[in-house]
Design a protein that fits this description.
265 residues, alpha/beta, eight-stranded parallel β-sheet, 8 strands
Length: 265
Amino acid sequence: MWIDTHCHLDAAEFAAEEDTVAASALQQGVAMIVLPAVAHDNFATVAALAHKHVNCTYALGIHPIYVPQAQEGDLAAMRVAVEAAMDNPRFVAIGEIGLDFFVPALTTPAMREKQEFFYVEQLKIARDFGLPVLLHVRKSQDSILKYLRRIKVTGGIAHAFNGSFQQAETFIELGFKLGFGGAMTFTRALQIRRLATTLPLTSIVLETDAPDISPAWLHPQRNSPEQLPRIGQTLAELRDVPVTAIARITSANALAAMPRLAALT
């Protein structure tokens, strides 16, 4: 069994093909796909997709790239939506939330402040409902960790991890798993491949971030969750372990990170 811990099946790139994509992934052994929301106006979309496909689940959150358009009232609406979703077994986490200090438009003082406000308030929602978080961490590892130390959540996943070994250790100490995907398949991605090889395997989960971060053999085409087993094969080769062990251990790690997901298996 494989678990794709991060896939945006609701993205425009999959328009009218969601059924085919989810079914193809299932045929390849991808038994679970987590669909994070990115804004209040797509909460219903990810929930509907999760109910339509046997191998899909969902998370609710406001992505930092969507924070510029977000209103403070979206946070109140999110809290209401999360409370309602707690009775829904296919709802598994808060996400995608976090901080993005890479996109220039998001790095002005005012926008950094707004990002941090939305991140903190969503951490509080996760804390209050005892939910894990799916974190967007781009050029923002230390700031992300600063708030995780202050607001205690029940762990989660640092998606598309690309920090230092020391930052990785801190995430792990705080109860987080680290997401690796298509970037790991590029031979030039030396730091990511080094982390994937040396970090404890018990701290690694797999993801596609489809339709983004396509693996080397697919780039620059659209990524898809059906690519996850081959991404897992890359991790097996890097660590010189059987691919069956990678499937088993990374899936167990994903279930540990998201207990509500485990309840579905």
